[in-house]
Description:
single chain; 448 residues; alpha+beta; eight-stranded mixed β-sheet; four-stranded antiparallel β-sheet; 18 strands; elongated
Amino acid sequence: MKFWMGALALCGLAVTNAFAKDLDALVRADLPSLVERYKLLHAHPELSHHEIQTSAVLAAELRSAGYAVAEHVGRYPDGTQAYGVVAILQNGAGPRLLIRTDLDALPVTEETALSYASRVTSRTSSGVDVGVMHACGHDIHITTLIGVGRALVALKDQWHGTVMLIGQPSEETIDGAKALLADNLYERFGKPDMAIALHDTELRAAGTVSVGAGAMAASSTSVDVTMRGVTAHGARPQAAKDPVVMAAEFIVQVQTIVSRQMDPFIPSVLTVGDVHGGTRRNIIPGEVKMELTVRTFNDEARTSIIEGIGRTARGVAFTAGVPDELAPIVKVLDNEYAPVLFNDPSLTARVRSALVGKLGAQNVFDEAPEMGSEDFGVFGLKDHSIPTVMFQLGAIDPAKFASAAAHGEVIPGLHSSRFQPDPDPTLRTGVISMTSVAIALMQTTAIP
Ligand SMILES: [Zn+2]
Ligand SMILES: [Zn+2]
C-alpha cells in the first residue's frame, strides 16, 4: 500500500511541465502518468463503503493540481462516514459544473492475466472472504477525472466559472450519491447548474463514445421478501408449513407480474437474485429469505410491481395455510433506491455537439436506454432542477473489438471477472472528451 501512495508524487508533474495549451498535446504528455495511476488503482480496489485509500489518492491528486479539496464527505443513514471527495476550482464568473467519478470496486475475483491484476481480497460483513476487482471500470473514471482536473487547470484561459469535481463512494450499492446529499453537499459546496459523468463500456471500442437523451437507465428498487413457515423434521411435512416450497412457488409466480399484469409497452424487469433458507436436507426450515430487484422507467409501474410482489407472497402463503401472524414480510429498501437516470435533452445536445466537434461524428454513437441502474441521477435532484448527462466511453482495444464483432464473440463486460479495458486509448479519449465537454459548457460568463 505504501508503494501505491508513494507513486502519487510522480503523477502530478506532467501537466505542470507541459507548456502546450492544446488539449491533445496536454493529454499526450500526461498520458503515461495517468496510465501508471490507473494500473495502481486497478491493482488496489476497495469495496463500496470502504474507499479509504482510493478517495485519499484522488484527493491528493486534485489538491496537487490546484483544487480546494474536502475529504470524508457523506454520511450513510446508519451514521457511518462516507469517503466522498469534493474538489473545487473557481475561475471567475460563470456556470457551476459538477463532474462526477465513482470510486468503488466489486466483490469479484479477477481472472484477467494482466500484470496489474488485482490480488486483493476482503472479508464481507458476513465473514466471507471475497476477491475485489474494479470490474465496473470505476478506476478508469477516477483516472479520467484526475486527467480532466489537470487539463482544466492548464486550460483555465479557455473557460469561466466553477468546476466541482466529485469522487462519489458506493455507486455499486446505490447509496453513495444519497450519502453525499445527506451530508449537505450543495449547501456546503454550492449547487451546480449542471452535472455530467461518463461510464466505460465493453460495447464500444476505445476511441469512441455514445450518448442518448431522455431516460437512459431504469430506476432500481430493492425488495426483500421473507416467506415464513413452520419448521419440522424433513420427513414430517404434515407438521410443517414449508417455506422452501412457498419460496419456489413465489419465484415462479412473481414472474407473471411483468409478463401477465404489466403493459408490454412499459419496460420492466423483476429478478430474484438471492435465495437463502435452511441448514440441512432433513429439516424443514422456519423461513426463506429472498432478495429482489425491480427495474422500471416510471413510478406507476414501480408501484404496481411492488404491490404485485406483496400480493403474490401473501397469496402463496395463504394457499399453503400459513397463519396470519406468519404472513410473509415484504420490505422495500428505500436506501437502495436509484431513480431513473435522465439525460436532459437540451444539455445532451450541447454535450453531443462538443463530443462530435472534438472526436468527429464517426466516433460518437447514439446510446439506447437500458434496464441497468446508476445513482448519478440523484445529483439532478428529485425535481430534475439540475440537468444531468452521462455518456458512455468505449473501453475495448479497437483491434480486439473489431475481431470479436467479426467472429461473433462476446467480449467480457462490466461486472465480469475478465473485464479488461484498454488503458491508453480509453483514458486518452476519456480525458479529451470530458475536458472538451466541460470547456464547451463553460464558455459563457452568464449563469444558465
Ligand atoms: Zn457496476
Ligand atoms: Zn459502474
